[in-house]
Each structure stands twice: as C-alpha cells, then as structure tokens.
Amino acid sequence: MARELPTSLLMFIASRTASNRVFEAVRAAGFHDVTVAQARLLMGIDPDGTRLSVLAARAQVAKQTATALVDRLERTGYVERVADPLDGRARLVRMTPRALAILPHARDEEERIEQEWRDHLGADRMTLLRGALEDLREITDPYA
Fold first, then answer.
1. What one-character-per-residue DSSP string does 102-139 give?
2. Cα torsion for 21, 22, 27, 30, to the nearest 10°?
3. d(CA 105, CA 25)
C-alpha cells in the first residue's frame, strides 16, 4: 500500500509544476537565453534591486553560483549591478528593461494556472487553499 504523501511534498509538486509552466511560457515568448537556474534567481530580485547574498539565499544556491548566474544574466542584458543607496560599498542586482519584459508573460501564465486550479477545486476550496497558504507563509517565509 502506498503511503500518504506529506503535505509539504504535495505543495512542492504543485509549485514545481507551476514554476515549470511559467518558465516554458517565458521561453515560448522568445526568451530562449534564460535557464531555469537564472529564472529562479531573477524571481528573487526586488523592484529596487537586491544584494547578491540575498539572491543566493532566496535561490538556495552558493554565493559563488549566484555570482556566476548574475554574470551570465548581466552579459545577456537581463540585470545590471548598481550601487546600493544605503551602503556605497555594496552593490545591488537590478532587472533591466529586458528582464522586465518577461514579467507580463510570466504573470499571464500564473493567471492561467490560478484559473485552472480554481476550476478544478471550485472557488470555495481555492479560497481556503490560498488562505491556508497565506497563513503558513507567516511561519515559513523569512522574506515576508
């Protein structure tokens, strides 16, 4: 008899599927030079920029890996390094207009996924799911 999967694994499966769909939608929109690893790093960039060490932590990669990914994203024109206005010695990684052009494609796919999940679960269960996940974020998201 198969064991019941832990809730955390069920959430991971749904999240991974959604992430893969968003990534494929971005590629289908013509952004073929972004890898999955680079996309994960891009997802962690705040609107005003983010320090490399924070990006590495958010993407759960070593700082050296994050540096290599940012180097490649910078060479392909998706990010730029700028001075941190709060600390002149530090640098922020910020999205360029080229990276920002990805966002509408990603958001459109996110909306399609949300609608599919709502259609599958029903509006009430989807509302409950979202509420439960938002409540869990309080104890699971160090960046909230």
1. THHHHHHHHHHHHHHHHHHH-HHHHHHHHHHHHHHHHH
2. 130
3. 7
- Please report the pLDDT score of residue 114 as a whole number: 97
CATH numeric code, 33-95? 1.10.10.10
pLDDT (tens digit per residue) in 111-134: 999 999 999 999 999 999 999 999
Rounded CA-CA distance 56/140 in Å is 18
Residue 142 host element (H or E) = none
Q: How far apart are CA 79 and CA 100, in angstroms?
A: 10
SS3 assignment, position 140: helix
Residues of the chain with CATH 1.10.10.10: 33-95
